């Protein structure tokens, strides 16, 4: 019995020791998971991401380096495109004459881009604080305190077609124009006489783009070929006109909105009023009769005025910036008012342009702001360096949808508006959808410095290593395909612009619907049998495109392709088999056509809801949306629960 008791005690002690060991191991494991794993996750992945900078121009085929799926939470901050530009462009043996121009341009831009990128890496630029201080260009800081004149006067020989307003306008700023309309001239038939006065946003424009027209004021003395005077007001952003406000001689109705208490359109005597003669005589007779019988005490005499702009006659026009809009008085009398439109501020109006059939005698601008920044490159004015706008952690390697956004280096405001609007969608915040900006290097080094800091902080910018130009945008599109295929392994890929508002859930639903049949697909606002323009700003030469028609292609502001098409494009690019064309949306149509004929059938899905010009009701994507419109659309989508346009700018 004693022997058995001793054995039981021995086993009991042994069990206790094992139990203590297990407990100690458990405590150690909990300690390791709680303290060591987050440290490794935070620092290890970041160090790996930064260590890959040296592989930017590697000659190895990156298609063979696809990493295995990682299901840990991490923020993908790869600051550059992993596309093998050395294989796709630098080592390309030019054989097609029509491609020689764009390929030579690409090689030159990549060579310049490599130098600029290496300069950025040498400087080892990193964002160490979330304050705006890190985004100020210190060597130009004096520009932000530059004083502007409170008034500007131009007379006689000094007058040109453009008057610069260095600090823009402010509340109660006014511009007085003394001028004379020219006599009507023949333009087809009948005669035409008109002039344009426009407020321009000279400092909110990328090189090569037309500046936005913050106010377009266009009196047409002979009307729209109708010989009835008309005045048109409008705005134009990125070559997209808003909804016009026309004044045709009729006073605005009582139920219509006013601007600072003033009607949008005053009445003037129209040609179909008999030039005022018979109607004026009739009113005069009625007035005298009413006066004789006492009615003059209760009724007021109404006066009609002629159209204030007359050929070869001097006029004095005053434009005033009110609280709700612009007010225009001519010869001391209120003529029209035009409400401010979402997208522009008074300080954006840094130029006054005059054009058309007009001889200007003098211009005076008064009550101008004197202390606004005059440097057109001031990212600290536009970037909100808050943690809430950073790209979310990627929970899993493969995602439902990848959104590649084309952006220019100095489009700080546009990127910030996207971050604050549709990139806040729950599908993006949960990492089921991933969105990234694709930015090429800017010719101005200070812009690249600030974009690099922006990329380090927000973690949502991918550099494409060439010096940016319109003709090479197609390289960004290929880079979007590479990122969507190799970095996030997305089922579908959407390409859009930084002035495109995206309904993320609608895009996912469209893609899922097309994918039900297990087909390759190409979704967007598709152009069929579109012919190249051979003249004008968007002209294409026969050397660039010898065919009479383009392949069927979706408009560039927004289209979706399936994973297999994107993978095919990247593979062909790195094998020197991808034909490049300066219009990226046409290029995509060309590549999809090749995939359709050589690999498998592609389902083309056409939808007008991928809106090319502006916004339509029940849109899926809306193009040419200014930063303020992006916020407006997002707020309406959240509040109303359905897509409603912000038509005004």
Could you give a short description of this structure?
The chain has 649 residues and is of the alpha+beta class. It is built from twelve helices and 25 strands.
Task: Throw out a few tags for this protein.
7-stranded mixed β-sheet, 12 helices, 25 strands, disordered N terminus
What percentage of amino acids are in beta strands? 15-25%
Output mean pLDDT. Answer: 78
- Count helical runs: 12
From the N-terminal CA to the C-terminal CA, the straight-line distance is: 98 Å
- Sketch the major β-sheet: 7 strands, antiparallel
Gross morphology:
globular
Question: What do these coordinates show?
Answer:
30% of the residues lie in helices and 21% in strands. Residues 1-11, 35-74, 95-99, 125-145, 274-281 and 373-377 have low confidence and may be disordered. It is globular. Strands 2, 6, 7, 8, 9, 10 and 14 form a 7-stranded antiparallel sheet that branches. With 649 residues, it is of the alpha+beta class. It has helices at 2-51, 85-90, 97-123, 277-292, 412-420, 426-429, 445-458, 473-487, 504-515, 563-574, 584-598, 627-640, and strands at 152-155, 162-164, 174-181, 185-186, 191-192, 195-200, 213-220, 230-237, 240-241, 245-247, 315-321, 325-330, 333-339, 351-356, 358-366, 401-407, 433-441, 461-467, 492-497, 501-502, 520-527, 553-562, 602-606, 610-611, 621-622. It is found in: Golgi apparatus membrane. GO terms for molecular function: hydroxyproline O-galactosyltransferase activity. It comes from Penstemon smallii. Belongs to the glycosyltransferase 31 family. The chain crosses the membrane at residues 21-41.
């Amino acid at each position: 019995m004693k022997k058995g008791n001793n054995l039981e005690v021995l086993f009991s002690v042994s069990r206790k020791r094992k139990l203590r060991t297990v407990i100690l191991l458990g405590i150690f494991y909990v300690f390791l998971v709680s303290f060591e794993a987050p440290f490794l996750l935070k620092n290890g992945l970041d160090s790996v991401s930064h260590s890959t900078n040296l592989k930017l121009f590697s000659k190895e085929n990156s298609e063979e380096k696809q990493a295995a799926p990682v299901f840990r939470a991490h923020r993908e901050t790869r600051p550059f495109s992993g596309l093998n530009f050395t294989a796709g462009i630098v080592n390309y043996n030019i054989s097609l004459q029509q491609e020689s121009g764009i390929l030579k341009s690409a090689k030159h831009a990549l060579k310049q881009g490599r130098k600029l990128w290496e300069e950025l890496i040498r400087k080892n630029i990193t964002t160490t604080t979330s304050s705006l201080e890190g985004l100020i260009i210190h060597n130009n800081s004096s520009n932000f305190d530059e004083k502007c004149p409170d008034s500007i006067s131009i007379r006689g020989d000094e007058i040109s077609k453009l008057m610069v307003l260095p600090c823009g306008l402010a509340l109660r700023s006014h511009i007085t124009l003394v001028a004379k309309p020219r006599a009507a001239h023949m333009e087809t038939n009948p005669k035409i006489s008109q002039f344009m006065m426009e407020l321009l946003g000279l400092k909110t424009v990328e090189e090569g783009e037309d500046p936005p027209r913050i106010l377009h004021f266009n009196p047409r003395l002979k009307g729209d070929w109708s010989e009835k005077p008309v005045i048109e007001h409008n705005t134009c952003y990125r070559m997209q006109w808003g909804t016009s406000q026309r004044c045709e001689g009729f006073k605005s109705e009582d139920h219509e909105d006013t601007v600072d208490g003033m009607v949008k359109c005053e009445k003037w005597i129209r040609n179909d009023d008999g030039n005022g003669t018979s109607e004026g005589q009739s009113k005069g007779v009625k007035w005298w009769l009413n006066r004789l019988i006492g009615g003059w005490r209760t009724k007021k005499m109404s006066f009609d005025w002629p159209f204030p702009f007359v050929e070869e006659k001097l006029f004095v026009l005053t434009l005033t910036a009110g609280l709700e809009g612009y007010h225009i008085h001519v010869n001391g009398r209120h003529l029209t008012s035009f409400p401010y439109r979402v997208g522009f501020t008074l300080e954006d109006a840094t130029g006054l342009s005059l054009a058309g059939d007009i001889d200007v005698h003098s211009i005076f601008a008064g009550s101008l702001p004197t202390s606004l920044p005059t440097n057109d490159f001031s990212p600290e004015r536009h970037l909100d360096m808050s943690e809430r706008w950073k790209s979310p952690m990627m929970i899993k390697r493969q995602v439902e949808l990848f959104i590649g956004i084309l952006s220019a280096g100095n489009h700080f405001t546009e990127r910030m508006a996207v971050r604050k609007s549709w990139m806040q969608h729950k599908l993006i915040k949960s990492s089921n959808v991933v969105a990234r900006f694709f930015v090429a290097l800017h010719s101005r080094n200070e812009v690249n410095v600030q974009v690099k800091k922006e990329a380090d902080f927000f973690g949502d910018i991918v550099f494409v290593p060439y010096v940016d130009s319109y003709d090479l945008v197609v390289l960004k599109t290929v880079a979007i395909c590479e990122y969507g295929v190799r970095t996030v392994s997305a089922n579908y890929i959407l390409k859009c612009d930084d002035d495109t508002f995206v309904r993320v859930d609608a895009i996912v639903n469209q893609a899922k619907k097309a994918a039900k049949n297990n087909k390759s697909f190409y979704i967007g606002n598709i152009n069929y049998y579109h012919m190249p323009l051979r003249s004008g700003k968007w002209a294409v030469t026969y050397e660039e495109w010898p065919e009479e028609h383009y392949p069927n292609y979706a408009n560039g502001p927004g289209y979706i392709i399936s994973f297999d098409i994107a993978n095919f494009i990247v593979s062909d690019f790195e094998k020197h088999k991808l034909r490049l064309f300066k219009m990226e949306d046409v290029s995509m149509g060309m590549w999809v056509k090749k995939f359709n004929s050589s690999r498998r059938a592609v389902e083309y899905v056409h939808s007008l809801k991928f809106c090319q010009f502006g916004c339509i009701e029940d849109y899926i994507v809306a193009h040419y949306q200014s930063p303020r419109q992006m916020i407006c659309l997002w707020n309406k989508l959240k509040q109303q629960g359905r897509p409603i346009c912000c038509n005004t700018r």
